[in-house]
Amino acid sequence: MAETVHNRIAMLRAERKVSRRELAEALDVHYQTIGYLERGEYSPSLFLALRIAEYFEVSTDVVFSIREFPRIG
Predict the structure, then answer these.
(1) What's the predicted TM-score (pTM) here?
(2) What is the rounded CA–CA span in Å between residue 25 and residue 46?
């Protein structure tokens, strides 16, 4: 079983009109890290996952899941 962590980072960024670079700067990570996360090429550490959720002011389960999120619309 692949250990894939699905996320809604791109959707949350789009809703809030935040660029990858802006999010990366706020989290003190490289902007490419945000791209890797969004594409599922990299799973965040627990600490980074918590910081991302805190940045967007949502719970971690709104941002991350071990199952694919259902399509919206």
Answers:
(1) 0.89
(2) 18
